[in-house]
Amino acid sequence: MPVLSVMLVSQPLGLALVLCVALLVGGAIPPGPDMAAAVAGGIAGVFALSCFFRAMAIGPMSIVAPVSSLGAVVPIVVGLARGEDPSGLQAAGLVVALAGIALAVREAEHPHGVRVPRSSVVLAALAGLGFGSFFVGIDAAASHDAYWAALGARGGGSVAIAAAALALPQMIRLSRDALPALVAIAVLDTLANLLFALASREGLLSLVAVAGSLYPVATIVLARFVLGERLARLQRVGVVMALAGVALIAAG
């Protein structure tokens, strides 16, 4: 399906879900400037997802997902600029996790090699920048209330997608058969947003963002069992290192 069609269904569904959660358990609405940052982060997030989905459509998942995760550099730089000071153990975990992500970029074993279109790598890198910007934006409002921060981000993203759909109606092609998958995307994506918003209240942005950027580990593992992709030796090492890095971050 066209990327815009996927986003047009999944984003508003996610907005409805997070609105229900915010009304049930949310606290005070964050101040205007912080809520605006969350909205801007949501717009960056849908840009990132659009690039990410398109990159996976034209390139191998085992390359696209890890490349996009390097967007964790954005909140790391912002966090350090704010004066965040992780412990020595957490800093070590950060280095190990990033090294694990880098190793996960290695191509899966393939008898004839895996063709990696340059455009898929560029789109994955753009997705990473968008994800990193999303992390920074939602963190500002989450310090007040994680649920309303997630709502602001999802609202900004939904408005951006609606505007794109009005401008590009020819890119809208919906399929009833795809509805269960689109609902699953909305639920999982919304849950991820909420969990990140909650995590950013409990830990340093630079460290939480790295842990949140370990999604390629799940992608690679699922690709192995669902799509039959084989993990290369260095990929397996990268998965172990990434998980070990998260353990060090948590222990610190």
Task: Pick out its properties.
252 residues, mainly alpha, 11 helices, 0% strand
Poorly predicted runs of 5 or more residues: none
Task: Quickly count the helices.
Answer: 11
> Average pLDDT, to the nearest integer?
84
Strand percentage, roughly?
Answer: under 5%
Instruction: Bin the helical content.
Output: over 70%
Main sheet?
Answer: none
Number of distinct beta strands? 0
Overall SS class: mainly alpha
Radius of gyration: 18 Å
What is the first-to-last residue Cα distance?
Answer: 44 Å
**Morphology call:** globular
Condensed summary:
The protein has 252 residues and is an all-alpha fold. Helices cover 78% and strands 0% of the residues.
SSE layout:
Blueprint: H1 3-25, H2 32-58, H3 61-69, H4 73-81, H5 88-104, H6 118-142, H7 146-167, H8 179-202, H9 205-212, H10 215-227, H11 233-251
Overall description:
With 252 residues, this protein is mainly alpha-helical. 78% of the residues lie in helices and 0% in strands. The chain is built from eleven helices and no strands. Helix 6 packs across helix 7 and helix 7 crosses helix 8 (179-202).
